[in-house]
Amino acid sequence: MSEALNLKDRLIKELWLPETIKAGDIFFPRLKKNKKMKLLTLTNDRNFQEIIEFEENNLTEKEYIVVWTYSHIKKLRLETELSPARVLGATRYENSTSSSSFPICEHFPFDIVNLDFSSQDPDLESGRIEREIQSLEKTVRLQRERQRTGFMLIYTTLLNSNELNCQGIAAASDEIHVSGWPGLGLGEFSPRIAGQMEKMACIQTVLNRIGLKYSYDVQIEERYYSLKESQEHLYSIAALLSSTR
């Protein structure tokens, strides 16, 4: 995972930061010196550079930051490094959103949601990306319930040789009912996707349709990097979600 953590610095400069600056200017045009955007970020105690960059560019301050990490030791370290930011987690985010006691619920909504699963030392077993996307939709749903204008959503994952279960993604999404929504669809894709380009196309389509499901217009920018140390690929989407009603 060290190479992915190093590439994170490139992602911040090439994608996350410029797209979030654009979002800040759209959602908070009158705030010039400090946007004071509320940030949720999945991060790592070895590299939380996105927090530093967002602060230095006057997008947020630590009192507006909620950090999620997946281990108790990392949580303790981040609490020391990032106080007064709130640090939560000690379990995987994608395994937590289905719980009725999801500990982050009370902190919604956010102006920036950075779901950087690559920073969480992900278990690369089959079904991982499907669970990430399920948690992403539940996050968007919480945002919609508590915030009406829009927000910046960043989703970053590791693509490997495991197939992507397209039908499973659609079925899980359709279990979350929204009045008037016909379903995620995805019939234009293979039921199980092996190729990296088709995986990325599917993920983009899913994110766009999840946005539509919750009445958001979605504008997407993306980056894709091959990892030299392995057969994995780092894929990141920065999506500006703007309310359509």
Fold and architecture overview:
- The model has no long low-confidence stretch (mean pLDDT 93).
- The chain has one domain (2-243): Rossmann fold.
- Helix 1 (2-27) packs parallel to helix 2 and helix 4 runs parallel beside helix 5.
- Helix content is 37%, strand content 22%.
- It contains 6 helices and 9 strands; from the N terminus they run αβαβαββαββαβαββ.
- With 245 residues, the chain is an alpha/beta fold.
Features:
single chain, 245 residues, alpha/beta, Rossmann fold, two-stranded antiparallel sheet, 37% helix, globular
Please specify the SSE layout and strand pairing:
Blueprint (H helix, E strand, L loop, with lengths): L1 H26 L11 E4 L6 H8 L8 E5 L2 H11 L3 E4 L22 E5 L11 H19 L3 E10 L4 E2 H9 L17 E2 L2 H18 L2 E11 L6 E11 L2
Parallel strand pairs: 1-2, 1-4, 2-3, 4-5
Antiparallel strand pairs: 5-9, 6-7, 8-9
Helix pairs in contact: 1-2, 4-5
Strand count, sense and barrel status of the largest sheet are:
7 strands, mixed
Total helical elements: 6
Assembly classification: single chain
Q: Supply the number of structural domains.
A: 1
Brief characterization of the structure:
With 245 residues, the chain is an alpha/beta fold.
